[in-house]
Design a protein that fits this description.
CATH architecture: Sandwich
CATH topology: Lipoxygenase-1
Strand content: 35-45%
Strand order of the largest sheet: 1-2-12-11-4-9-8-7
Distance between the termini: 37 Å
CATH class: Mainly Beta
Length: 219
Amino acid sequence: MAINLNKITLEKQGDSHKIDLTKGNELLQEIVINLNWTQEPPKKGFWSTLLKGNSAIDLDLGCFYCLNNGQKSVIDGLQFAHGQGGPKDAPTKQGRYTGAPWIWHTGDDRSGAGNGENILVNPKGLTDLKRIVVYCFIYEGAAKWTETNAVVTVKIPNNPEIAVEMGKQYSTRNFCAIAEILFDKNNSITVKKLVSFHTGHGDCDKAYNWGMKWTAGSK
């Protein structure tokens, strides 16, 4: 784990960092979970073009969530890409900010060129939340994690950002569970680095004991 005044980087699988939310006004401001990535310079030449070497990688951010009352589900871009999303105050496949589950995905980003993708957690729901597993997946094509430099950052007000860097991974599986966030009833949050690779949502579900049913989806 690397620590400075502005950022804590969880470097190894299993590294974790706990934040006490009772020391400041953290509970008054939202928590932001951000996924950002970069694209390697496009390959040039006839063969790279023929083999679609210039195609951009589309990463999607999502999360499994569980509430203290046992409610659990999943939020990601595939769930609301066909108009199933909505405003923050209405329960949709995009989540809900002003009521349970107190989690809202702000929208899809196809390139990572801007601010990436973000999930917002409303501090009013911290006593309802139990567990979140944050993941990302490559939507189309073969897994090329080495070309993404993907980073998930958990931004908790008045604390250093917690960064989970994927690094130069070579897995051929296109789904990565990046971090687990645990919400303690004593107003603390623990962020743990996972970075485990899976064949899809269902495979990840089994690995982390969520117990949900899955069908194929598309954008």
